């Protein structure tokens, strides 16, 4: 069975991402190799994930890790949850040598990374992502954090794990909608910088969506490889790393407008990528053929769930994007498949156009069943 | 008038600490030189400090900074306060280019540094410390954070400021007890690694305690220089930096036992240094003469306030120290003035001895009026 190791090398960290089916059963052994001193381990997880796969994970540990549970859901991705976990670590006697294991999806991984970043001013952690979104995208690159009332991911830290262990076999137990939504981030990776990955996603959608282990391993590995390259060049998102936010400016606005309840993150990003591609087409930045192919492949990994939002509100919400600096609004547009760029001159008129077009598309019955 | 600039150069940061009387009035100009793009500035401060010195500080800014207020006191050094400030930054439209100015004492500086470390995963900040403790010690070295219910400074980050501007003239407006407590950290710096500074503190206590600007500038500058050297060698406290915790293991235990209400931090550290010196004397690690001189100088910067605590409880509380790794207890002991070491073998029996001796000393009337 295929196993791929992708090195991540940044200014501040150096670690490997291992992607292999049935990897879960060997994580204890792998950790013992990485950390021969056998420090105390704490698994941060959700009851659902732990119920499904906890035994497979912990079976490989000689000393049983302590389990800290977090209820699933974006609404728990808050400083109050992190504070509760910090107190629990202290009560359990975690020290600077202890290691955290983030065992769950993107929300859990972001929060556990931030927990590791802040407990005693930083302890080690590994990511064991269990959703397509987390394996393809969010467990890589060291972005950790929580939401504020004022906006998503506004509190956090750049803090890299010691390793990432992604087991694609775990994805077979997830709801199909989560798999599809997560794969939108692989499409994003393809559009940004990897035309071959995009082609693969286009050609092999049936096998990928059927959770064929070889195909999933390939898609995850190539998505991670693209992201690792970008993060290596620009760890702190001063330039190139902004490209990874393709689809995210409007995606975040959609999530905020729908109070994070109607769409999965990957679905919101998919809508955001459609909107960015539409702006690029209208500008003549991308050919009509490439635009249409992007749209077709995104919808092939649908159906994209409908949502309700006011186009004007979506435009207003983009003004809060973290990429904005000193008032200038940044936006990522595709020039072609495998070639995205950061632009600073997207106008309110263009945003209004694309938001209205998007909401019209949302309203079309056939999109929801593409 | 004397002005001293001490460079801090670590693996992750490079910045200057400027110490000069009446520096406050030029900070806006200095910031404009450091950041010619004129980003939005936010002053985080306490009402008291801002009332005393806010006008002097803001007068030097062309564009008036936004003021965020935090009530003074260790009890506000919590994640809930940081969360409130994060929300306020977002509501005021702070972006990744914005800069925070920590204008206050040690608690305020620790919290503002953590606020800067976590807002949008890290924005820039400067330290403008206004207490002796903060100018001599806590504003230097990038340790930021807040307290948990489980212990002091258990949540935080290593995150350096862009610059530190310390104005010793500000110290004349502070209560004398705060000045004296803060100067204990200068004594600490002398004991750890700078015999000349210790000698200066011994010889010039009258001028220093009278807030003579030249003397204070010298003491602050030499304390900062010592700390900068240690932090340059060991930013993340894997070894040498632990030395800076001389007096802090028992000091933190005293603070915890007295619920942070009876002593100032520097006073607790002073008691902790006396206790560490007593262990060193009992071991024969330090000569009796050096031990007695340390005790005399610490008490010369007293009076050390009394407090109530059970020796056994103090010993128990030292087990929670952040320096402890994988169960091993670390302790800092002086081998002589200007020469401290990290030891791992301090026993519960030694801790009990020194805690009991300390509490007997506390009970002696003359100590409180030394």
Strand content of chain A: 15-25%
Mean pLDDT of chain A, as a whole number?
Answer: 94
Helix vs. strand class of chain A: alpha/beta
Query: Helical amount among residues of chain A, as a percent range?
Result: 40-55%
Rg of chain A, nearest Å: 20 Å
Largest sheet of chain A: 7 strands, mixed
Strand order of the largest sheet of chain A: 1-2-9-6-5-3-4
Question: What kind of assembly state do the chains in view correspond to?
Answer: homodimer
Order of helices and strands of chain A: EEHEHEHEHEHEEEHHHHHHHHEEH
Number of strands of chain A: 11
**Count of runs of 4 or more consecutive helical residues of chain A:** 14
Largest interface: A-B, 41 and 42 residues
Distance between the termini of chain A: 33 Å
Silhouette of chain A? globular
User: Spans of chain A of 5+ residues with little confidence (pLDDT < 50)?
Assistant: none
Can you give a write-up of this model?
2 copies of one chain form a homodimer. The first copy, chain A, is α/β, with parallel strands linked by helices. Chain A is built from 14 helices and 11 strands. Chain A has helices at residues 27-34, 47-58, 79-91, 106-118, 132-138, 176-193, 195-203, 205-209, 213-233, 248-257, 265-283, 288-300, 311-318, 348-363; strands at residues 4-9, 14-19, 41-45, 66-69, 99-104, 124-129, 143-148, 151-158, 163-166, 331-336, 339-343. Chain A has a 7-stranded mixed beta sheet. Chain A has a two-stranded antiparallel ribbon with strand order 7-8. In chain A, strand 5 (99-104), helix 4 and strand 6 (124-129) form a beta-alpha-beta unit. In chain A, 53% of the residues are buried. Chain A binds chain B through residues 12, 37, 39-40, 79-80, 82-83, 86-87, 90-91, 95-97, 117-122, 143-145, 148-151, 153-158, 236, 320, 322, 324-327, and chain B through 12, 37, 39-40, 79-80, 82-83, 86-87, 90-91, 95-97, 117-122, 143-145, 148-151, 153-158, 236, 320, 322-327.
């Amino acid at each position: 069975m295929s196993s791929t190791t992708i090195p991540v090398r940044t200014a501040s960290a150096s670690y490997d991402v291992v992607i292999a089916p049935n990897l879960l059963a060997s994580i204890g052994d792998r950790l013992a190799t990485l950390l021969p001193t056998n420090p105390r381990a704490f698994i941060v997880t959700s009851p659902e994930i732990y119920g499904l796969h906890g035994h497979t994970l912990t079976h490989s540990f000689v000393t049983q890790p302590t389990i800290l549970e977090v209820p699933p859901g974006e609404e728990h991705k808050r400083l109050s949850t992190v504070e509760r976990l910090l107190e629990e670590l202290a009560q359990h006697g975690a020290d600077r040598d202890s290691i955290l294991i983030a065992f769950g999806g993107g929300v859990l991984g972001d929060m556990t990374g931030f927990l590791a970043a802040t407990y005693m001013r930083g302890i080690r952690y590994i990511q064991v992502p269990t959703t397509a979104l987390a394996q393809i995208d969010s467990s890589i690159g060291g972005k950790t954090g929580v939401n504020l009332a004022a906006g998503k991911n506004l509190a956090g830290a750049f803090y890299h794990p010691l390793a990432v262990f992604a087991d694609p076999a775990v994805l077979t137990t997830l709801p199909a909608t989560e798999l599809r939504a997560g794969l939108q981030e692989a499409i994003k990776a393809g559009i940004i910088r990897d035309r071959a990955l995009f082609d693969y996603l286009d050609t092999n959608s049936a096998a990928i969506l059927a959770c064929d282990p070889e195909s999933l391993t390939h898609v995850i590995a190539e998505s991670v490889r693209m992201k690792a390259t970008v993060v290596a060049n620009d760890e702190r998102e001063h330039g190139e790393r902004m490209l990874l936010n393709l689809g995210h400016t409007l995606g975040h606005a959609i999530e905020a407008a729908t109070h994070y309840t109607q769409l999965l993150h990957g679905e919101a990003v998919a809508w955001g990528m459609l909107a960015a591609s539409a702006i690029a087409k209208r500008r003549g930045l991308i050919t009509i053929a490439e635009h249409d192919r992007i749209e077709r492949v995104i919808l092939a990994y649908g159906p994209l769930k409908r949502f309700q939002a006011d186009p004007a509100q979506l435009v207003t919400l983009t003004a809060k994007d973290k990429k904005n600096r000193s008032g200038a609004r940044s936006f990522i547009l595709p020039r072609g498949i495998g070639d995205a760029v950061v632009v600073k001159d997207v106008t309110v008129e263009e945003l209004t156009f694309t938001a209205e077009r998007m909401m019209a598309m949302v309203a079309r019955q056939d999109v929801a069943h593409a």
